């Protein structure tokens, strides 16, 4: 037993020694480090607890190495610190920081073309913000980019950091703006169907020329060049080139020309016509054929992607009205490469059941939310309809309140919900203009006006203008509420005062004071209706020299006019000053330009009030309202006077213009017009209510130079005023063409034309028995005599059209071919004006 006991004692001692040895050899146990063991050093503005908050302990409150590394990365990314170091000291974590300085002020020097306010809004470095060298570098690049967007690619931006006490710095950006970098050349490769000159009309970027200083479209802007690629492609797709692609827009800086050379590479493909149009529906209860009336695509016409898109929009909206809120119209088409036709198919399918959860509007710093939301035909909770969203985006762009409009979608709170995001960028909507012009009819004219398209951010329109000219002057105030009672109806009001003075075409002046409210509404995108009420007062002004004829033998208070010698020569030697023969009275009055009987009668009657209801129905498919090359514009208007007032009549007029692109950029224009004035009841028509025509009907004639005219004293070699007519018609054919040898940017076009038309059927006053006016005993023929032959007037001419930086100008020289005996010819005509 003793032996076994001895062995046990030895084994126990040996085991204890081994255990002790293992404990001595093992590494020391890690001490648990928590937030309480984090020490922050070097911080001045940033609280220590803020620094500690970036440390995220793991299980058991331990700060292992991955957690410390994550905290180090997060602290550096805050931008608050210039340097961050983390060390372990005993059982503690020591965080040593060097804080970034605070920016005292941010200033800009050398910038003349871009204001401080605009640069301040673009940079991220702000006064009282944290200074960061990375942020300063980013701001330097941003300022340079702003200048490049304005065409100054030679810009140099140098940041300067000025240290101040208490760890503060001032930041100065010194700018060397450099000269503008313009586009010196725009070329096209691969175009055969359209000339380079025609394609330059399509894009927004222009080549630099002598007048470029008045605009900025010649300044190189990569975003604008990229947008031009899409404009060119859309242009080809509109004209039947379904496969057209603009594969590249190459830009190269030419140091010799000190400008950019832009080249568009185009693959035109074939031109297609529509071979057939079909409608198919996968919705059992939906009749696809009923959509045919909403299609703007017709068999045999050129394939036009815009017509297809408009057809899809109309069909999808109509399907939604019929209760198929999720119906989707998708176009399809099979090309026949040999026949150069496209078979268009409109497929109507049931789309995904998606609803609009919210409409979020961003970027409208001035425009009220409701002004934007009312352009949508859909709202929160409605079925998502892409056609209606696209229409809303187009309407917002057409408001012309914003530099950019973009509507995108984001996922909603569930798979069947979407959020519409409307991103906007506001722009200036106020205009102050000083306009000046001259025409052969109105003489020199100047106008000062101020207008606002988005008054108070409520989408209202207001304008006030004052004009003063050689033969006319006036004041006008206009106001438009585009959404009357939250309906898509525009309420407009106009108040005006206008004075038209006597000139070489009329012996009298007319002063008009009027008020006219109106309501306009769009029946379709190409069809609109305007309802109006007009209340205005008119009065004649006449110089005494035009109203001093003594036609009454018993009235000896009036002097003979013209001189007795002139009358004596007419009467074969009879001296009117000594004669007691009353027959000598009444002659010679028109020899010095005496105004016509209707004019003097209107003067004697005094001011006249006209109260009229009217409407205008307009159909417009023009591709461009300022410089149309294709489309139709028809205006039909009627006005009924007699809703109170002193005048009654029904006046109707129609005006139609059709534009069609022909060959080599030549545009054909057909212009038809006509009108009729009807007498209502027993009240006579006034001369002022008649149509007055001249070059607005047939060029080559003076203002008021066509139609019935007073010829009472034509035998004495004098004709009186133009009387106007109650019926007219006119027709014109014109060809407009560019000058191919001139740069397109000059804006000059030539025109040749032929006009024909007529004005006839005067129905105004022809006699007047007022005291001192007509003595029938002395002058049996002193009543109004006038020429009223329904003669066709015609002319041919040439014109020069200039879309100048000073405003649109037009010069016309027309030679009458046929005319009335007493018509007044004016072969040269000029008119135009500008705003600056």
Descriptive keywords:
single chain, 836 residues, alpha+beta, 16-stranded antiparallel barrel, three-stranded mixed beta sheet, 12 helices, 33 strands, 17% helix, 40% strand, elongated
Q: Could you explain how this protein is built, in words?
A:
The chain is an alpha+beta fold. 17% of the residues lie in helices and 40% in strands. The strands form 7 sheets. It has a 16-stranded antiparallel β-barrel. The longest helix has 24 residues, at 2-25. The protein starts with a helix and ends with a strand. The relative contact order is 0.05.
- Fraction of residues in helix: 10-25%
Average residue-wise pLDDT: 82
Report the total helices. 12
Question: What structural category do the secondary elements indicate?
Answer: alpha+beta
The poorly predicted ranges are: 6-33, 551-588, 771-781
* Number of DSSP E strands: 33
Strand order of the largest sheet: 16-17-18-19-20-21-22-23-24-25-26-28-29-31-32-33
Main β-sheet, in a few words?
A: 16 strands, antiparallel, barrel
Q: How large a portion of the residues is in β-strands, by DSSP E?
A: 35-45%
What is the CA-based Rg, rounded? 41 Å
How far apart the termini lie comes to 126 Å
